[in-house]
Input
Amino acid sequence: MARSMWSSPGRWMLVAAAVFSLMTGTPGEATTSISKDAVVEVDQATVNQILEVFHKADAAIAAENVDSLMELYATQYNYHGLKQADIRKIWADLFKEYRNLVDVHFFSKLVKVGSGSNAVIEVTCTGILSGISKTSGLRVPIDSWYEEVHFLTLEGGVWRIRGNAGETPRVLPFGTAPHPLF
Output
């Protein structure tokens, strides 16, 4: 029997924290966590390395440091046709329009696909990116995702955000939105 997307208490806490932060305009706190019910098919060292990538992203976002963020993306990054230069511009524009950006990542699955230089880590994630508008002064949601798969590849001995795996569809399926930042 299929499990409801709301059956995990961790998901409720994530939603409650995001809603509270958006309603009160509080700065919020970046967080990356793994569900206690997560499917983890990688060793603990790999889990730690993946968490480190996202913790570095948290720190770079808090510091509004585009260069540090870009170090986390693979040189061959490709997300539905968006390349590294596109992502750099998106982050730079976000930092111009918003302050106190906060990202929350809640992992429900970590799986390694392939081996050697072709290995990819698929991280299934629910999360949100929000910031305080420099125009209105209000905290606004910038992006949110549910069960999105982040793809990471080993490059130079470090896991980096790759984009999507395989061929890029010419058109996204109806009802889906791209989430290129992670």
Strands lie at 31-41, 73-78, 98-113, 120-133, 139-155, 158-163. The domain at 34-163 is CATH 3.10.450.50 (Nuclear Transport Factor 2; Chain: A,). Residues 44-62 form the longest helix (19 residues).
